[in-house]
Amino acid sequence: MVSRRKFIQVASSDDEEDFVAETRSQGQNSRRPEDDETPPEGVKPDDVKPVGEPVKVTSRGRWKRTHYGQFEYKGDRYKLEDTVLLRSEDNTQKPYIAIIKDITQKQDGRMMILGHWFYRPEEAKKKDGGNWEVNDPRELFYSFHRNEFPVESVMHKCVVNFVPDHKQLPKRRDNPGFIVQKVYDTVEKKLWNFTDKVYDDAKQHEIDLFVEKSVARLGDLPDLEPKLYHFI
Questions:
Q1: Exposure class string for 148-163: b at 16+ Cβ within 10 A, else e
Q2: Looking at the DSSP assignment, which residues form a beta bridge with residue 190?
Q3: Does 225 reside within a domain?
Q4: Residue limits of the BAH domain (predicted)?
């Protein structure tokens, strides 16, 4: 079991120094790679394995990482951009949710995931305190906060739909899964719309792709009814 605060924040690509600087600037705790979480009891080495040929190899020596596009855990296959539920550190907390951004194998054979986090509204701290207004109990906030964690933390895949704020939310019975309409800034502790001009090109492109995939999955959602304002 793992905690978002305890996840290892190390680079898994050539921009290691930039990555470490970024995660520290987010005010998150960092740990050295040798302090990895141990696998849950009952997990055997054969339960976890990479799938396919390596995508690339980064770093050297003890820091060497072999990157893959997929892995298999207990018979289930996961790939880059899959959204997964992750075990929390105790049974009283809801599972965490993340998108798989990188899959690596360390020198000791451990398989690790680099993920971007989703935040539940009650987990996202507000700069001036208080709680965020939530439109639907399925709602999550996306973030560009990223951490590395063992693949043994994965419970199973889940569905997260990115819905533009001018569209009606899909009906739960027809389209199960979580809903995202905002991006949470973990530094400024603010919420942003998908179309706010605060993202660099790469991040904006990523959000646009999430929306496109969700719309393709959900179909053409109706527009929200325009609000009518009465003036005296």
A1: bbbbbbbeeebebbbb
A2: 185
A3: no
A4: 76-195
Most confident residue range from 39-48, 99-108, 221-230: 99-108
Domain range spanning residue 47? 4-218
**Lookup: tokens for 185:** 């800034």
CB atoms within 10 A of CB 113: 27
Q: What is the DSSP string of 53-91?
A: S-SEEES-GGG-EEEESEEEETTEEEETT-EEEE--SST
Integer distance in angstroms from the first to the last C-alpha of the chain?
Answer: 58
Please check whether residue 160 lies inside any domain of the structure: yes
CA-based radius of gyration for the chain: 19
Q: Give a yes or no: residue 231 inside a domain.
A: no
Confidence check: pLDDT of 138 > 90: yes
The pairing of beta strand 178-185 with beta strand 96-105: unpaired
Tell me the pTM: 0.78
